[in-house]
Write a structure and sequence with these properties.
It contains 7 helices and 10 strands. Helix 3 packs across helix 4. It is α+β, with helices and mostly antiparallel strands. It starts with a helix and ends with a helix.
Amino acid sequence: MKQTLLILSVLGISIAQTSGAAVTTFQTSNTITYISAASNYGSSQNTYSTKSGAYVSSNDEISQAISNLSAQAQQKESQLSSLNSRLYTEQQQQQVNKVPDSNSAPAIAAARASRVALSRSSGYCARYVRKALQSAGYEFAPNPSAYQYATLGTLDKAGFSKISNNMPTQVGDIIVYDRSSKRPNGHIQIFDGKDWISDFRQNSISPYSGVYAYTTWRDSKYVDDASDRGIYLAMADK
């Protein structure tokens, strides 16, 4: 009997004993089984009864009952793990499908930039993109240089999040090129769903002939959550 009590104690099963009678409660996530034991001191004969009316008469049968309950608990844990996996997959799918429609702020800004784009650069990319963003309702203080929209946190304050440069591009995404000795003001541009637009319609993602570092920004409403933004940031910084 001491061995049985030790097993029950290790498994977290409470035991109350008075005058040779013990009541044991087994509890799983949705099943509670009561087992009472009546014992005459000095006798090796024990009789156990469950609430459901089943009777057992040995410690081996009690151990088997514990094993059955443990198996049920493991089954429930497995089901919960499966549900969590399905939920994560559905959330990821929702993120893939989470793209701006034509009435969204990113799409409105991109459409404005596309309408007023010049045939070639005027040198005022920051002004054109800034006006496009403001026309869509984004609020921020203008910066004199394009690169400052990233370095001074302007886009962040306006509601954008930095994402990985490797993320698939979608309408309203913004790229800010770092400044360099040849390009002291940097460069800023917005994607209209087809082309990259700054003050003019570009032929490619880069307006330069060389290779320059840049960061990509997206309206935070179309980025999953803070944890994912942290992952994108880490990826972008590599």
